[in-house]
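Allow me, if you will, to draw on your knowledge of protein folds for a short while. I have a record of one protein: its chain in single-letter code and its fold written as discrete structure tokens. Could you please explain, in whatever detail you think fit, how the structure tokens follow from the sequence? The record follows directly beneath this note:
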Amino acid sequence: MLKTLLCIAAGSGLGGVVRYLVGRWVQSLSGAALFPWGTFAVNVAGCFIIGLIYGAIDRSTNIPQDVKIFLTVGFCGGFTTFSTFIHENYMLFDSSEFPALALYAGASFTVGLLLAYAGHWIARSI
């Protein structure tokens, strides 16, 4: 268990640093002050990366569990949790679980947006 946690910690740290660097770089290239191009780029890149990783995992049984954990939960989790969210939605889509897909995607966005609003409102009210 300790080895697994260390793999996650190392991957998360690396993913977080890469997220910061890529996000800043893309935002500086965009010249846009308001639209978060850096975050958008990181999120969609994370979706592509996690798709590549899980696709490779599906094709090979030779990938050690620690490497899988490092790359998926660790790196992709540190890089962007959006990639995990999208992958979970994809898995529901791929298994034709359309009501669950609609509920998960819709509720995650709606409740997330409402709670972000509530957090901002509470922080401004204190």
Summary: The chain is about 85% helix and 0% strand.
